[in-house]
């Protein structure tokens, strides 16, 4: 096993290093390896994940591993290194949600929580091999796994993926599905192979998509369901039937979910229909978020400025509403009830419910209206259609 200086980056949050940590870990692994020669040892599971939704998966796995009669234990947790938070010289690396949960749980030794910068690092792969895991489980880990990693666990590596594979393979399955306005999605538990999200599927569950649910909420829902699916199928995995029960994906139905970019976050009401913009707002909620530009004019002085406002939550009208009739007559932006009604391409109207103006905290659209008294709100002149707010 290779330790020494390469071991330190794993313990981004100050885990013990040096001779005592290494010797202690070796003794623990020796005990585990010795137990593997007996028939009564628990299956060793290694979990890999990074963000909040992955921490939710780990929490369920740890809870299940502590139940009476549990056949497995979480023997190692792997996450991406913590990212600096704060400004300038005061920036301090903070552990990922998965690393923080693993440490706070008290169920793992500090040296069993690893944070390699890349999963192909020699010292990380050596530590994994020494553990001799039975199964690895990934959920939103964020690092590519080399073949040497995949060859290590006796029963393979299972991934909890929030889509109905082969649909929405890739980095942003939930976000792209919501952007596309799907009425149904789901979660898959699939074996990991070198090709991205292309392994055979062990289990799947379909889920109807609420028309107003946003990406963070749907991610939490799907990862929770996916973890339960995984737990339900573990008896088959322990019995060695998992691989033969898994179903190969239909490559003719593959749909890729490209990584999101900040350049996609700007909304254009003059070019997108109300439904298209609503779906983008809900799909991009959390990160990268969505914004729109408005022109604010002081009615007394005539002075105006264009500001960029974050659009946090929207809703399609409960009844079909045209920008050429009713409260949106003439294409005006109006405030009505709890919403700001914005005309969109195709003659429709989008109800904006929550915004964050520059230098302000997130607020309800109706509260932003109060701060606009004496001012007119319009879409910038460069937009294909011009609208005036009635405030």
Automatic annotation (TrEMBL):
Keywords on record: Protein biosynthesis, Transferase
Gene Ontology MF terms in the entry: methionyl-tRNA formyltransferase activity
Domain called Formyl transferase N-terminal: residue spans: 44-230
Source species, domain of life: Eukaryota
HAMAP family on file: Formyl_trans (MF_00182)
PANTHER family: METHIONYL-TRNA FORMYLTRANSFERASE (PTHR11138), METHIONYL-TRNA FORMYLTRANSFERASE, MITOCHONDRIAL (PTHR11138:SF5)
Family membership: Belongs to the Fmt family.
Protein name: Methionyl-tRNA formyltransferase, mitochondrial
UniProt source species: Chlamydomonas schloesseri
């Amino acid at each position: 096993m290779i330790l020494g200086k390469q071991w330190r980056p794993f313990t981004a949050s100050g885990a013990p290093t040096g001779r005592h940590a290494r010797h202690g870990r070796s003794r623990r692994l020796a005990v585990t390896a010795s137990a593997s020669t007996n028939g009564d040892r628990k299956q060793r599971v290694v979990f890999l994940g990074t963000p909040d939704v992955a921490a939710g998966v780990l929490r369920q796995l740890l809870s299940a591993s502590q139940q009476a009669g549990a056949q497995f234990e979480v023997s190692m947790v792997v996450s991406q290194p913590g990212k600096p938070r704060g400004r300038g010289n005061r920036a301090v690396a903070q552990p990922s949600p998965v690393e923080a949960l693993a440490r706070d749980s008290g169920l793992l030794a500090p040296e069993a929580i690893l944070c390699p910068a890349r999963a192909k690092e020699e010292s990380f792969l050596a530590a994994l091999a020494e553990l001799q895991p039975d199964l690895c489980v990934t959920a939103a880990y964020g690092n590519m796994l080399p073949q040497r990693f995949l060859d290590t666990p006796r029963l393979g590596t299972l991934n909890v993926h929030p889509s109905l594979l082969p649909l929405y393979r890739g980095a942003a399955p939930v976000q792209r599905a919501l952007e596309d306005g799907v009425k149904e999605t789901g979660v898959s538990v699939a074996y990991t192979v070198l090709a991205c999200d292309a392994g055979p599927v062990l289990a799947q569950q379909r889920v109807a998509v609420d028309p107003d649910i946003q990406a963070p909420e749907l991610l939490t829902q799907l990862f929770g369901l996916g973890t339960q699916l995984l737990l339900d199928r573990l008896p088959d995995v322990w019995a060695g039937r998992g691989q033969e029960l898994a179903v190969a994906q239909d490559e003719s139905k593959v749909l890729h979910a490209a990584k999101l970019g900040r350049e996609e976050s700007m909304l254009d009401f003059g070019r997108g229909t109300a439904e298209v913009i609503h779906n983008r707002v809900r799909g991009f909620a959390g990160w990268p978020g969505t914004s729109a530009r408005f022109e604010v004019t002081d009615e007394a002085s005539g002075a105006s400025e264009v500001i960029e406002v974050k659009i946090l939550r929207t809703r399609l009208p409960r009844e079909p509403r045209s920008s050429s009739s009713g409260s949106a007559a003439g294409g005006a932006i109006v405030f009505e009830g709890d919403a700001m009604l914005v005309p969109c391409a195709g003659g429709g109207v989008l109800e904006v419910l929550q915004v964050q103006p520059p230098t302000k905290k997130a607020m309800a659209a109706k509260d932003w209206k109060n701060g606009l008294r004496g001012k007119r709100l319009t879409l910038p002149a460069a937009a294909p259609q011009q609208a005036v707010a009635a405030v």
